[in-house]
Specification:
The complex is a heterodimer.
Chain A lengths: L7 H33 L1 H12 E6 L6 E5 L2 E16 L7 H12 L3 H8 L7 E7 L1 H10 L4 E10 L7 H4 L1 E2 L5 E2 L1 H5 L1 H5 L3 E6 L14 E3 L6 E7 H17 L4 E7 L6 E7 L19 H4 L8 H12 L7 E4 L2 E4 L2 E4 L8 E4 H6 L3 H11 L6 H14 L28 H9 L8 H12 L4 E2 L4 E5 L5 E3 L4 E3 L5 H17 L12 E12 L5 E15 L3 E10 L7 H19 L9
Parallel strand pairs in A: 2-10
Antiparallel strand pairs in A: 1-8, 2-3, 3-4, 3-5, 6-7, 8-9, 10-18, 11-12, 11-23, 13-16, 14-15, 17-20, 18-19, 21-22, 22-23
Helix pairs in contact in A: 3-4, 3-5, 9-18, 11-13, 11-16, 11-17, 13-14, 13-15
Chain B lengths: L1 H7 L7 H5 L7 H20 L1 H8 L5 H22 L2 H24 L11 E4 L2 E4 H22 L6 H20 L10 H18 L3 H19 L3 H11 L10 H13 L24 H33 L4 H25 L17 H17 L6 H5 L5 H15 L12
Antiparallel strand pairs in B: 1-2
The chains are: A alpha+beta, B mainly alpha.
Amino acid sequence: MALPNTHTPIKAVSRVRLGYGVLLVIIAIFGVRLFYVQVIRYNHYKTAALSDQLKQYEIPATRGVIKASDNGQLVPIVLNQKLYTLYGDPSYIKNLDKTANQLSAITGGTATKYAALLKTKDTRYVVLAKKLTPEQKDKIIKLKLPGIGTVAQDYRTYPQGTLAAQILGFVDDGGTGRYGLEEYFNKQLTGTPGSLKAITDINGIPLASSPSNTEVPAKKGDDIVTTLDLAMQQQVETTLKKGVEQSKASGGSAVIFDPKTGAVKAMANYPSYDPSQYFNVDNAQLFQNAAVSQPIEVGSTMKTLTTAAALDQGVITPNTTYYDPSHWTVDQFNITNIEEDGGAGTKSIADILNLSLNTGATWELMQMGGGQINLKARTAWYDYMTNHYRLGKATGIEQGYEADGYIPTPKDNGAGINLTYANTAFGQALTATPIQMAAALGAVVNGGTYYQPTLIAQTIDSSGKVSNRAPKVLEKNAVSPAVTQAILPILDYVVQKHNFYPGFDHSKYLVGGKTGTAQIAKPGGGYYDELFNGTYAGVVGGDSAQYVIVVFIEKPTNAGYAGTAAAQPVFGSIAHMLIDESLVTPKTH
Amino acid sequence: MRPQTTRRRARPQPTVKTTLGRKHRPDYFLLVICAALLAIGLVVVFAISPALSQAAKVSSSYFVSRQLLAIGLAIIAFIATAQIPLRVWKGLAIPMLLFAGFATIVALLMPVNPAYPAHRWVRLGSFSFQSVELVKFAALLAVAGFFASRIDDDSINDWQKTIKPLLLGVLIAGVLIAGPQKLHAQSDLGSMAVLIALVGAMCFVAGFQMKRILLGAAVLAILVVMVILPSAYRRERLATFVHPESNCQDAGYQACQALIAVGSGGMAGLGLGRSVQAYGYLPEAANDSIFAIYAEKFGFIGSVMLLGLLAALFSRLKTIAERAPDNFSRLLTCGVLAWLSVQSIINIGAMLGLLPLKGITLPLVSYGGTSVVFVAAAIGLVFQVSKYTSFSAPLAVDNQEQGRQSNDNRHDGRRLRGAYHPDLSGRR
């Protein structure tokens, strides 16, 4: 061999040193590299780290609640409730059948369904059950089943059940308000979501103690206090339901309206739905508040407004009498009355409303034109309908899907405009919703001020600040106060002359109103012979009108005129309820 | 086996023999450094335990208690290798090597842990160990013994007697550890690199001709190219290494996240409890990537201190190798030095984006029982050597070459001023 062994130790030592030298050079290179990466390029890597690690989360805001007044107290009618969604991660499930059985024992669900879901491939998240109660959730958490978890979600809950469902609307699965107040005030109720910027682990779960975490707390949505009176709303709903059933009608609406503020004290439709079960409703029509969204030809209840308009124009006085021929010919068509009109003869203004004279209402329209239906009459009446009574346009009440209704224009269209206008004088050939009628009648009976109908008394923001909604005047001089003074006794007289069981103590209370039996237009033109809508528009009060009550009953099938047989009893019950519950201030003289 | 038969042959012993009897205080500083490295690893594992246990769905004390158990076993292994005489270990080398080979074959036949397709694990009930660590330990003793006997009979550069058996052994190891991916496991190139470095360092120190060493290195380089080029997976790894940040989503993910961890540590680090990368971003946070997590926590200052600690460890091993009383213990110490240093360099180099990721641990610091136990055992052997260190060995046998001697004397004389062995003072 080339090298003798005695050289080895020396060579070994020098080679060890050589190797060690190389080692030190590498370590020095590492040190330089560390300086480059950690000090010189620090900002680059810090930015890269944060772009991975820093995530932003939305903190959902608690939705505001909706309240109503009950005997002077505010009580919630829509609340939030934390319920739990049960989910599983199929990749973690051990002992599938046992897991499914234990879960179904608590939730009441089907074990086989759970087992099938938990076998799903290629997913880490399957929803097993929704809306579990906190008790159910606690039981499930106690089981400590691997791969099973719960997540809290806010749900709307309705302490009053189905009460005012169509006014309230509901909140869908995605947290968006649908229909009613929930939709109209969705943004205000939702509040402002907060945000959490946090350093998280790779799964996006925030790490507790990072100085880089910043949290903007969520701002709770506003609470909404409605003008609804809980007791009245309950009574109206019950009464309406009974009325619709007794008259074998297809449905109906009823409104109690405060003419002095525009506040809606109660508003009901039948049929309605259960907002906690909104997903089981097949007919989306049910979600709509018909008292706001469904205009109909109002029939003879219109005569109150026609009479008030004629009085306000001064073309008639409360004491005017006239000769009623019991029929008019307008545009070659005959305008007649119902059989009980008492025949041709001298009639008073009160008779027009009491006997519900179509010819009387037509005569009033003629007076607006100086004795005949002409452009002047039409224009004057149109001005009253659309500007003084604000028919034909939405009231702006805080509900979605509000209908405008329809008022024909006075321009001569060459197709019997005078006949059309004669019809509008007694409530045909135009449409209006119950809320439009209530607000218009409210203006007539309160001295002439048209208040915008509203469902909102106040809103309360997250800091507790209360904002009252002031009554909003849309029309100052709908009619003169003298018209109110003239019309109220007539309406009271009409009620006295109609048979209410039980009757009212008219010495103590003002109870007045007018029925309507409206023909229903066929889709192709003309009217149905056998189908009518029954309507009623009345007032209850003492020295002044305190409540306006409007009742629509759709297609009643019991015997008698729809207005008298179907709508009037509902008005009567509501009026009695208000008096019996001492909600009406009696007359002082 | 050839080494054993040749060793029994009677032959004149060099002066080395006499120094072996002179036992003195061992190198306790070596122990202090190792204890510090173990403590650093344990502290980091403790600090990231919440993240680790959450991901692994085990109790929060799992990782620390496992590592404490490993350290306990490591202390036992250390005491055994430090106390039981080296000749006993030398005698056990071949049986251990055979057993390690057997264990590797068993591990190859066992289904692999899908998380570590390159690791050969032998599982016995709940206990498992990585056979490659035993291979390193046994190869260390076997090759040191083999080379020592070849130096003694002056045939260290003999093709037939030394180099052929050595190449055969390395070839067998290469097939088992880094061999074709026919069976369950992927090839463990990282461990193979450490093994080759360990053997290569001993070849170098044993006095292999320089041209042969250079030739071997060249052959290795060609082999590496041949291994990498046909494998798309390795080509990707190599491309990832060249431009780690170009491919952060797939192959380069771990390399990128390691650099992000190191870089975001900055000058002073985020603090002990503030590592974010450990929370699922950086794979193998406690094992292969522990240096990056450490660098994230303790910054440039802490990282340089850790490098300094490693340098101090290597410096102790170098000094012990220089002063080793005989060829066997010198080769042994050099093997340990090569083992620990190359493994550290591959590990840290990968975290710094200077070397491709190889999936091996940072000795003594990384979480993982097998590595800690066998590294401790290897250090125990060196610790035993440190009881017999002396300056006489290289000097006594080197009278023929005065020039080299004086050169070495100068070096040793300088180092003498800092000498810590009282029995060595005044020997000149």
